[in-house]
Every structure is written in C-alpha cells, then in structure tokens.
Specification:
alpha/beta, seven-stranded mixed barrel, 7 strands
C-alpha cells in the first residue's frame, strides 16, 4: 500500500511516496527527532522527558514525528497507545525503518479506540528531506 507524504516549507512543496505501516490521514507541523523510546522517554502529556535525548522538553502532541525509528523496550507500545487514547500522541509518524513498537501501538489504538494514526515508511534519503519541512501532510488510505 502506498502513501503520499507532502512536505512543505515556506518556499517549496514536495511529494514523497511511502509504504503504509498503519493507515490514516493527518496534516501537522513536522518534528524531526533522533530515535526515541516511548517507555520512560515520553510522559502522558506527550512531552519528551528523557533527559539524555536532544529533544528533552519538547512536546510531541499534534506534530508529525519524523525519525528513523523508535528505540527501547516493546513496552513503549503501551505508552503510545495511552497517548493516542488521551489525545496527546503525535499526529503521525514518518520513519525510515519498519518499527514494530510504533506500528503495534497504532494497530491496538485502532482496534480499541477506532483512532487511526498514520505511520509511513520512506527511504532514508527521503526522510532527511521530509524532516526539513515545516509541515507534513500524510495520506495513507486503506486500499
């Protein structure tokens, strides 16, 4: 299944193809991150609380997170499911590596709460271009 990611800056708009890991649609500002663990790294408000992470103190709620993949414990899925349930999760994810932790959380949230949070996979070279965008729109519809 193919997704379309539209990345916008003040001077340009570019579309990038992606593979759907979890369907959904969103449009939000982009937040480029290094790999992040949701277990102990993010609190229930969606803020990065890992004092060793470069984005410490950054709120992720309502942003499209652009990063290679998550890191850390598989328990991070349960934290992300709670963020989705509470409405404090990122608006979506653009990744360059398939990520079971994030994808599992989105599958569970869709099943339990009928909330579709898009997760798309792009080539590593595309990730850098999308990470530089001011805003990202994801169209990752079910076929």
């Amino acid at each position: 299944m193919t997704a379309i990611i539209t990345a916008s800056t003040a001077s340009s708009v570019a579309s990038h193809p992606g593979r759907i890991l979890h369907p959904g649609r969103t449009s939000a500002p982009a937040q480029a991150l290094e790999p992040l663990s949701f277990w102990g790294g993010v609190d229930l408000t969606g803020a990065v609380v890992d004092v060793h992470h470069p984005a410490h103190g950054t709120g992720l709620s309502g942003w499209v997170v652009v990063m290679p993949a998550s890191r850390g414990s598989s328990s991070g899925s349960s934290v992300l499911v709670e963020l989705i349930r509470l409405g404090t999760a990122p608006a979506g994810f653009v990744l360059s590596e398939a990520d079971a932790i994030i994808t599992t959380a989105c599958l569970v949230a869709a099943e339990l709460y009928s909330i579709d949070l898009p997760v798309v996979l792009v080539a590593e070279a595309e990730l850098a271009r999308i990470a530089a965008a001011d805003s990202v729109e994801i169209a990752a519809d079910r076929d």
